[in-house]
Amino acid sequence: MNVKSHLIFTLYTIYGILLKVMASKGKVRGISGQYPLVQNVTVTAGGTANLTCRVEYNDNTSLQWSNPAQQTLFFGDKKALRDNRIELVRATSSELTISISDVTLSDEGLYTCSLFTMPVRTAKAYLTVFGVPEKPEINGLTKPAMEGDRVTLTCITQGSKPAADLRWFRNEQEVTGAKEVNASGKTFTVRSSLQLLVTRNDDGVAYTCRVDHVALAQAPQQATEVLEVHYAPRVEIIHSLAVPQEGQYLKLECVSRGNPSPDPVMWTKDGGELPDLDRIIVEGRELTFTSLNKTDNGTYRCEASNHLGTSSAEYVLYVYDEPTTPPPSTTSPLHPIPPDPTVQLSTHASDPTVTGSKDPNALGQHGTDHALIGGVVAVVVFVTLCLIIVLGRYLARHKGTYLTNEAKGADDAPDADTAIINAEGHHAHAEEKKEYFI
User: Fold this and answer.
1) Is residue 210 scored above 50 in pLDDT?
2) 77: which residues sit within 8 A by CB, 6+ positions away?
3) pLDDT, tens digit (0-9, with 9 covering 90-100), for 242-280
4) For residue 296, what are the contacts with CB-CB under 8 A and spacing of at least 6?
C-alpha cells in the first residue's frame, strides 16, 4: 500500500470513528434493529466470486467489506486494498457488492460486511473455493505387454479440493480399482490402481481413468491407454467343400491369429513340399485346387510362427469319385439305394488349445454296410431254398423200380439157379428183339 492509499484508508477510518462518536451523542441516529445481510459463496479456483452485502433501511451509514485477514477491501465505493483482482460492482446506501476474479485457494475464508452504526453491526459470509483436479496420468504400462504378464496400472491426479474420485473403464465397461487419498496442504492427491493378468483378449483394449469432481461437472478429466499384447499364434484351416469330388474347385484357408502377425504361413503335403502342379495355387494364406483329382489325396499342413511360438493345423483330403448316378425321381423307390461311401476328411491343429472337430464329410458307412450284408445273406438263403424245392420235385418225378437178375427170372423158377438162367434167357431173347434203324 503506497502513502496515498494509506492516507485515504486512515481518513476513512477516522471518518467512521467520528460517525460512531456522533451517533453516541445522538447527532446521528442508527435505525434500531438494522443488520447487514450476506450469503455464503462457492466458486471454483480460477473463477470469479461476487460478495454482496445489503441492508433494508439505512440512514446513509457506510458499508464495508473486509477479507479473512481483516483487511478492508472496500469502504463504501472507495477501494482500500490494492489488488487488481478486486473490483466494485455496486455501491448504494443499501448495498455494497464487490467481485474477486481469478480466485485461488488462498482466497478461501470468512469475509465480513460491517455496517457502521452505533454499535457497529457485522455479518460474515464464507467463501468456499474448489480446487480443480489436474488431468490424470496413467503409469505402469509397458508396451508391448506379453500374454500372461501381471500388470498394475496406476492413475494419479493432483490439486483437487475436496478429494476427487477416480473410476476405471475397460472400453465402455466400468471396472474396480484400489483408491488412495493423500492431503497436500489444502488440496489432495488421489491414486487408483488396477491389477491385470494380461491375456490375448486385452490386445487393443482401451483402459480409461476418469476423474469425477464437483469442479468438473461439465467436462470430466480422463486419460486413456490402449494395451498392446504380444502372444503366440493359433492356427486353423477352413475348407470350402464339405465333400470334395473329382473336377471340383477347393480352397483351403489358413487362419492364424497372433501378435506380431505370423505372416507368411507355410504349406506342406504329407510332411514334404507341395507338388509343383499348375492346379495347386498358393496365395498368401490360401491354398487352392482348381480341379481336384485322386492324386491330390493326402494330409495338408499349415504352419505359422512368430517370436513367441509356432502353431500348425492339418487337413486330411480325400477326393471322391465324380458322381455318375442320375438324380433321384420324384417318387420314392421300392428299395432304398445306399449312398456312395465317403472317406473321412479331418482338420486338426497341433496347438493344444485347438480342439478337434468331427469331420463333416463322414456319412456313417457302418449302418449302410450292415444293411447291404443282411440283404445279400437273405438273397442267398432264398435262392438255396428254391434250389432245394426244385431238386426235390425233379427226383419225385423220375422215381422207378430196379430189379436184380434173380428177381427178373424168379417167375416159374423152383430155385435161384434156375431163376438166373431164366433171367439170362430173357436177356438173350431181348437181344434177339433188337431192331436197327438206318
Assistant:
1) yes
2) 88, 91
3) 899 999 999 999 998 888 888 788 999 998 888 877 888
4) 279, 280, 289, 317, 319
In the chain, how many H helices and how many E strands?
A: 4, 26
Q: Are residues 41 and 47 in contact, defined by beta-carbon separation less than 8 angstroms?
A: no
190 and 164 in contact (C-beta within 8 Å)? yes
- Residue 62's Cβ-count burial label (10 Å; 0-12, 13-18, 19+) is buried
With pLDDT > 70 as the criterion, what percentage of the chain qualifies?
A: 72
Residue with cell 499364434: 233
When pLDDT is cut at 50, 70 and 90, the band that residue 197 belongs to is very high
CA atoms within 13 A on the CB side of 78: 17
Name the helix (H) or strand (E) containing 335. Answer: none
Burial class (CB in 10 A: 0-12, 13-18, 19+), 115: buried
CA-closest candidate to residue 100, choices 39, 47, 36, 161: 47
Per DSSP, the residues of 88-122 read EEEE-SSEEEEEE-S--GGG-EEEEEEE-SSS-EE
**What average pLDDT does the chain have?**
78
For 226, the enclosing helix (H) or strand (E) is strand 221-226
pLDDT band of 371, cuts 50, 70, 90: low
pTM for the complete prediction? 0.57
* Cβ contact 69:34 at 8 Å: no
Query: By C-alpha distance, which of 240, 256, 266 is closest to 360?
Result: 240
Residue among 315, 317, 314 at smallest CA distance from 296: 317
Residue at grid coordinates 490424470: 136
Under 8 Å between Cβ of 187 and 215: no
Average pLDDT for 91-106: 93
- Flag whether pLDDT at 109 surpasses 80: yes
Q: Distance between CA atoms of 174 and 153, rounded to whole angstroms?
A: 15
Q: Which residues contact 67 (CB under 8 A, 6 or more apart)?
A: 73, 81, 109, 111
Decide: helix, strand or coil at residue 201: helix
Residue environment code for 342-361, b if the CB has 16+ CB neighbours within 10 A, otherwise e: bbebbbbbebeebeeeebeb
3-state secondary structure at position 16:
helix
Which residues lie below 8 Å from residue 181, measured CB to CB, with a gap of 6+? 163, 188, 189, 190, 191
pLDDT at 415: 61
